[in-house]
Design goal:
The structure is a homodimer of 218-residue chains. With 218 residues, chain A is mostly helical. Chain A is 75% helix and 5% strand. In chain A, helix 4 runs antiparallel to helix 10 (191-217). Chain A binds a DNA duplex (30 and 30 nucleotides) through helix 3.
DNA sequence: TCCTGTATTGTTGTATACAAGTATACCCCT
DNA sequence: AGGGGTATACTTGTATACAACAATACAGGA
């Protein structure tokens, strides 16, 4: 096995299992045994265990004596994650406006160019990943480890819902233009505007996602 | 080695290293190698690695190719953690007031009795642990996995500062009486009162801790 | 003396071996 | 046929072995 330190098997395994839980490939209630995952993913139990440990810390699974039971993400969890976003993202964006480096702003800009490209093509798969990167850059740019460590996994776990939302409406264009407006507010170091825009962005995303969830539940 | 599943070596190792980082036994910037920790704690690298993985997720350390560098907790982090508390704890306590089980309320009550006992003895070490349990019970009682997974580690990481605060003033009595008031609000299902009281509790704790930090920095 | 190349030591990442416990299925006995 | 006990297979937790890579110290030559 080649030794790609930066993308260790444990990290890859974490991403795969996380994605499978979020997308309910592993359904809530299902029990994941280490040996099963080991066979399934073709790696030994060691990286599996490390990934499961982190997933447990994020409350996506719960370990017991005879396996890890999948907890998954409930609609209540989605509500709660948006509550967290509403409560903390304005402050994070304020700080990013104040202290984000020019380099990070450059990365944001380049990210936006890609967003524009894929928005035209309506490629929600790519847009979903770019959205994750966009937000992570800003969380990191806030300079607060605490905010980053809370908001980044929070945003991550909403991935499936964000993608579904982008697929089902004209949210692609709106989302993109909101991102552009946020970028300009950050670049101009206008923290009041940045806070106001992200609040609106979160509210819009919430409404959109909520509609999708209600539609699905019918 | 006896097989106490519920308190696995990995969990114990996590607690020890976490405590050592919080109390700056391992100073920020210091590099922790797995083999060193393995010798130091008398266990193999396997549980060490699992603990380090979780510590990295909590941003207490950062792993690189040649070891894990200790990040520690800065005074800015303390500010940020209180910001998170102010933003999210009122909502958590509201929900706890609404949905906490009678059993959990019983546990809170018994915890308070112990708090009273140790408050009289001014045993800040025990009080610190009881305070952790008290808050964890309420976070869990909120019924929100999301809030619990954010607020519990957040409160944990403030441990050192909470203890220092309890040692340096008459905060012991005030903290205890605030806890009692919160318990009664929860038991009476008065969510408005619970939210108001925790807000005040957080503000008081913040002022107290902040004074200590300023005093130390001189 | 300084620089360069090599060897040693230390690091992480991964796989595997082993111990201990548990649930389950199956067989035997009543 | 039904119930109980045993054996088996599967689970996690831990330790160790091995591979790949990195840094460093040291020795030798220019």
């Amino acid at each position: 096995m080649i030794d790609y330190r930066s993308v260790s098997l444990a990290n890859q395994v974490f991403s795969v299992i996380e994605k499978n839980i979020i997308n309910e490939v592993y359904a809530p209630g299902e029990i994941l045994s280490e040996s099963r995952l080991s066979k399934e993913l073709g790696v030994s139990r060691t990286p599996i265990r490390e990934a499961l440990g982190r997933l447990e810390a994020e409350k996506l699974i719960a370990s017991s004596a005879n396996g890890s039971v999948v907890l998954g993400i409930t609609t209540q969890d989605v509500e709660d994650m948006f509550m967290v976003k509403r409560a903390l993202e304005p402050e994070a964006f304020r700080r990013a406006a104040r202290s984000m480096s020019e380099g990070a702003l450059e990365k944001l800009k380049s990210n936006l160019e890609k967003q524009e490209f894929y928005a035209v093509k309506k490629d929600s798969e790519q847009l979903k990943n770019l959205d994750t990167e966009f937000h992570d850059l800003i969380y990191e740019g806030s300079g607060s480890m605490i905010l980053f460590s809370i908001l980044s996994p929070n945003h991550h776990k909403l991935l499936k819902f964000r993608k579904a939302s982008l697929e089902m409406s004209d949210r692609i264009e709106h989302s993109y233009s909101e991102h552009v407006a946020i970028y300009h507010a950050l670049a101009e170091r206008n923290e009041d505007l940045a806070a106001a825009l992200i609040t609106e962005h979160v509210n819009n995303a919430y409404e959109n996602i909520n509609e999708n969830i209600k539609r699905e539940e019918k």
